[in-house]
Amino acid sequence: MSEIVNNISFESPLYLLLLLLLPAYLFFVRRNNLGGLSALPVSQISDEIKWSSIKFLLAKCLPWVVGLSFVFGIFSLARPQVVLVEERINAEGIDIFLVMDLSSSMLSKDFTPDRLTVSKNVAIDFVEKRPYDRLGLVSFAGEAYTQTPLTSDHKIVQSLLQELNCGYLKDGTAIGMGLATAVNRLKDSEATSKVVILLTDGVNNAGYIDPVTATKIASEFDIKVYTIGVGSVGMALSPVGRTRNGTYQFARTRVEIDDELLEQIARETGGEYYRAINAEELQKIYAKIDELEKTEMEVTVIRREKEYFRYPLSISIILFSLFILLKYQVVRLWPD
User: Fold this and answer.
1) Three-state DSSP class for 40?
2) Per-position b or e across 38-53, b if 16+ CB within 10 A of its CB
3) Whole-number Å distance between alpha carbons of 112 and 188
4) Could you read off the pLDDT of 245-258 as tens digits, one per residue?
């Protein structure tokens, strides 16, 4: 209970300013003697109305019932929340690294609007479906970069995926570097299942670690690699150069994906190789990986915000209902 009190916060704290109206209400109650009997003539009390002590007490309580209903109603409007509530539950969770190709060819227009945008959106949906996994993100082109190490904060991963763009890494396709970077981040994980999902649309042509070496390292650390080749078969409208202001120039060029290498990486690490020639197939591929990679384990779930507005709202409604009920039981004591 003390932990809940220490971690409580309000989503809309400005509503708490309405509590400043409470002193005015109490002054009004006191000034008009609401709930008391002195507003009635003594003769009425002694001769005409024979109030029991219980009803007299109820009449005195009515203004306070209304006041308390008002207070709890305000707390409900302010939306009390408890942050960082830890729970231990049985759930399906593993450690997954997403490795995304950011070479300029990922801007090819054989996907709508382009390969990169579709790949990002499908990966974001995949992250959404894995609530109990730790995920990391590596991007690569001619070099590799860790966008985020393993984290349970999926909103960060989704945000970084959305922000991925071609051009800020040296151009090229360093598949070995991308895989090796993810393996380096996963090798010390204590998870029973460690997975890399590597997405590329090209042929390895850069980097100082070749894909075969990276594959062997992944296999040594029991890291399973799912590889995805993205791109249509044949010709595609792809970047062929850049203008002085950095704008990409497009022309129809032949699509080249090293299917044999990607199959080898997947086979030697216990994964699978998939080829996606359109957005629908890419979605199905991620859905299949989602089904394959599930491990029963106990995980700690940190819920950043847990709403508690229902409790003060319920109390407010109960108190106001009680006021209505009692008011009509002691209506003759309530001033007109």
Assistant:
1) coil
2) eebeeeeeeeeeebee
3) 38
4) 888 999 998 888 99
pTM of the model as a whole? 0.65
- Residue listed under structure tokens 């508690």: 308
Q: Which two tokens stand for residue 216?
A: 């062997």
Domains of the chain: 2-84+304-333 (no CATH), 88-301 (3.40.50.410)
Output the six-digit token pair for 80.
Answer: 């009390």
- What type of residue sits at position 117? T
pLDDT digits (tens, 9 = 90+) for 303-316: 566 788 888 889 98
Gap between the Cα atoms of 107 and 128, Å rounded? 24
Amino acid at 223: I
User: What is the DSSP secondary-structure string of 116-156?
Assistant: HHHHHHHHHHHHHT-TT-EEEEEEESSSEEEEEEEES-HHH
- The beta strands (E) that lie in the chain are given as 8-10, 80-82, 85-92, 95-101, 134-140, 144-151, 194-200, 223-230, 235-242, 248-254, 273-276, 296-303, 306-307
